[in-house]
Design goal:
726 residues, 24 strands, Bifunctional carbon monoxide dehydrogenase/acetyl-coa synthase(codh/acs), Chain M, domain 5, binds zinc ion, globular, Bifunctional carbon monoxide dehydrogenase/acetyl-coa synthase(codh/acs), Chain M, domain 3, Rossmann fold, 6-stranded parallel beta sheet, alpha/beta, binds iron/sulfur cluster, 3 domains
């Protein structure tokens, strides 16, 4: 059986090699061998060649040895008589195919051909980091790579919706007989994009390399594996990157060769045609190549073969419900009704009620529903009032639970929720309305999801929805008072005021030695876990990733070192980290996994530090972009002078306290300044440097070291007069 596969894979790889060879030599002739090549916003050159061969391809010339290597992997087509017991030759051909494809698409970038229309093409490191957290916390249980086209548009939508309902990140592309699933979905108006978990990569099989070289980068970004450690990389993708291929329609040599490459990475391939199956496991966790001709079963079969477990939430609402719909927007043309935003007053408020007065599951609507809108109007005021009770419920958990309303309601297809508290904005689409969605379903969702995710702390949930202006106004007065009290309480919490910190080990599924220690004044580097979040999460799952760490005796107040914190980190980092300073960038800083919101980096010549956020793509005075900087931080190792942090840590009184705090900050992107806005100004005042914000350079006045130094001198930045950093 595997002979047919090997034959096709070898033939496909040979064709890809010929194409890569011709294109590369043509490019060398036209542009010279020193012409630079590469992909946008990555620290990993041509990632497949970098990860597996350790090669740093920067110019056309550098790609030549990669091609040579690919050629050496392409064996003779097996003769009729030979029985091939192993997959070996097919896998080698598969790897060769991937190296060649990567060179071909890099050349397409050079000539401005890719990314093609409607497609993302190369996926940046920054997106990978952003997705990291969703992949580790289970919101995204797996990744699908679809190649080809379904027999008809309806089936294409059906397959993709099934994947979406299971929150699988789905890459769509390639073609069958000149038809691509991308166009099938476009014709059916399926909303695509990262936020919808459906990502079009390109219309030919070659461009599927964008997905595979995205996957291989996770080994370097999160796994702490060094470029060139091929076996480790492939074991990592097999064991930790839960991806699979779905080949739709007839397969040709290109698809087989690429599929063999995917299998070599540990990703099984499922086809909807009568292909010879490869049941052997080892290279993949279970079967390597299987067929499933029934479209109703194909997605389940794929999940089974890849060993992906999905938690399906059964929420009794008349629309589809899954995390994959979280980012879906409801545009004006689809709008049935909206609440909040510019349209009306809306807010949401969750508080603890008295257990004996609450009736679990009771949902009341006080006012008119969305099928009784005033004529010509598309909005109503709205107050969502949630009351909960539970033996383990604490007042401190109220804001955490309240914040989940955003996520919970967004998961419903045809619902959009933006903001929180009295800044919320909710939209319901015509489609959702037509399917029977009414206001009480908001309550159904909140009730069901609070039970599903927070049953350890919540016993009863009751929801009231108000839609008359006077009710909403009246209730809002009280809510606002409580919002303020909460802010004050959180503002007052300090590291000294508690005796227990919390760990977060979620990212260990990707970065096995990484440990986040979360304190009241320093949140997790992904920005998603504050001390209160971690505390609540521990109450919910006492054996989960957030464990209490009783600080124990203080070893160093300035650096932020405690006996038990060190001991805990040592244990949980598999003995790879001995000491960790919570407040220092230079001396035993915390490790970074890969999903940090910002990177702090020293600028020795300025005697200061800079910080750059993930969304800023330009150059920084360190001479590197976020992406390049990020490439040298991560994988669960300590890198003094470089540190991944959450955005809000900048506002903390413990922000690199050991190095002198905020006064050390000499550069940050303008958008980050604006984002932190008044709060950052307030911090500057508190430290007695009211003008500091203006003295901190941004990209409008410095993007090189020289520009930075002259700017700092001109404005008299305090870092220049501080103790030497190194
Ligand atoms: Fe990962 Fe740290 Fe965020 Fe936890 S707090 S999810 S370990 S980055
Ligand atoms: Zn992480």
């Amino acid at each position: 059986m595997s002979k047919i596969v090997a034959t096709l894979a070898i033939q496909g790889a040979a064709k890809l090699y010929a194409q890569a060879f011709d294109s590369l030599n043509k490019a060398i002739k036209e542009k010279g061998e020193n012409q630079k090549i590469g992909f946008p916003e990555t620290a990993f050159y041509l990632p497949m060649a970098n990860a597996l061969l350790g090669a740093k391809v920067e110019t056309l010339k550098d790609a030549l040895p990669i091609l040579e290597h690919a050629k050496s992997l392409i064996k003779e087509v097996p003769s009729e008589k030979v029985w091939l017991p192993y997959l070996g030759d097919a896998l080698d051909a598969g790897m060769a195919a991937l190296f060649c494809e990567e060179i071909i698409v890099a050349l397409r970038y050079l000539y401005g051909i890719d990314p093609e229309k409607d497609c993302v093409g190369f996926c940046t490191d920054s997106i990978l980091r952003q997705l990291g957290i969703q992949l580790v916390d289970g919101r995204m249980p797996g990744v699908a790579l679809i190649l080809g086209a379904a027999p008809d548009n309806k089936k294409a939508v059906e397959i993709v919706r099934q994947l979406q309902e299971k929150n699988i990140l789905t890459f769509v592309g390639s073609s069958t007989n000149g038809r691509s699933i991308i166009d099938q979905l476009l014709e059916e108006n399926v909303e695509m994009g990262w936020e919808n978990y459906i990502v079009p990569y390109g219309r030919d099989t070659i461009s599927s390399i964008y997905v595979l070289n995205f996957a291989i980068r996770s080994t370097l970004t999160f796994g702490g594996i060094k470029a060139g450690q091929a076996q480790k990389c492939l074991a990592y993708t097999r064991d930790r990157v839960l991806a699979f291929g779905l080949a739709l329609g007839a397969v040709d040599e290109y698809k087989v060769a690429t599929g063999a490459g995917a299998i070599a990475m540990g990703f099984p391939v499922i086809a909807d045609t009568d292909i010879p199956e490869i049941k052997a496991s080892g290279v993949t966790t279970y079967e390597a190549l299987v067929k499933e001709l029934d479209y109703k079963k194909i997605v389940w079969r794929a999940l089974e073969v890849r060993g992906i477990k999905v938690k399906v939430s059964n929420i009794p609402v008349p629309v589809a419900y899954a995390a994959a719909f979280e980012g879906e927007r409801v545009r004006k043309e689809q709008l049935h009704v909206e609440f909040g935003g510019k349209a009306s007053t809306a807010f949401e408020f969750l508080s603890t009620g008295k257990a004996d007065e609450l009736e679990d599951g009771k949902i009341e609507l006080i006012g008119s529903d969305i099928d009784q809108l005033p004529k010509g109007s598309k909005s109503l005021p709205l107050a969502i009032i949630v009351e909960v009770s539970g033996r383990k419920m604490q007042k401190d958990f109220e804001p955490i639970l309240e914040r989940q309303i955003h996520r919970f309601t967004n998961y419903a297809m045809g619902l959009m929720h933006v903001g929180q508290r009295d800044m919320s904005w909710v939209r319901i689409s015509n489609d959702a309305f037509a399917k029977g969605f009414r206001l009480k379903h908001l309550g159904v969702i909140i009730h069901a999801m609070l039970h599903q995710e927070y049953s350890a702390i919540v016993d009863k949930v009751q929801v009231k929805l108000y839609t008359t202006q006077s009710d909403v106004d009246k209730l809002l007065v009280h809510a606002k008072k409580v919002y303020e009290e909460r802010d004050e309480r959180i503002g007052e919490m300090t590291d000294e005021s508690v005796d227990t910190y919390y760990s977060c080990l979620l990212c260990q599924s990707f970065a096995p030695n990484h440990v986040c220690v979360v304190t009241p004044e320093r949140l997790g580097l992904c920005g998603a876990y504050s001390w209160l979040d971690a505390k609540a999460s521990f109450e919910i799952t006492p054996t989960g990733p957030n464990q209490p760490i009783l600080k124990g005796s203080t070893l160093d107040k300035r650096l932020g070192q405690w006996e038990n914190v060190n001991e805990f980190v040592k244990q949980k980092s598999n003995k790879s980290v001995e000491t960790v300073s919570m407040y220092s960038l230079m001396d035993s800083p915390q490790t970074s996994c890969g999903c940090f919101e910002c990177i702090l980096a020293i600028i020795p010549e300025a005697n200061g530090v800079m910080i750059v956020n993930r969304d800023y793509s330009g150059l920084t005075p360190s001479g590197m972009s976020f992406t390049t900087l990020a490439g040298s931080v991560g994988g669960g190792v300590q890198t003094p002078g470089f540190l991944g942090v959450g955005k809000l840590y900048i506002l903390s009184k413990k922000f690199i306290y050991a190095e002198g705090g905020l006064k050390r900050l000499v550069w940050m992107p303008k958008e980050l300044k604006e984002l932190l806005g008044d709060k950052l100004k307030k911090r500057c005042q508190e430290i007695g440097e009211p003008d500091l914000l203006d003295k901190i350079a941004d990209e409008t006045n410095a993007t090189t070291s020289d520009e930075l130094l002259s700017y700092l001198a001109k404005v008299g930045h305090p870092a220049l007069a501080m103790d030497a950093l190194m």
